[in-house]
Amino acid sequence: MGSESYDEAIAALKKLLSEKEELAPVAAAKIEQITAQLSTPETKPAFDPVERIKTGFAKFKERNT
What we know:
The chain is an all-alpha fold. It has three helices and no strands.
């Protein structure tokens, strides 16, 4: 996503919150939740290429011995 998309999303959110002020606490809570998720590093990546190569090589050796 480019910065233009972010700017557009922020502008749209500001407009929505100015029209419907009762959504402000909900939006603030959701933004805090997303920020916390993004700032927390993952303990293990979803895909570890080094581990994949190791397990693939081990299976290859088992089949070809």
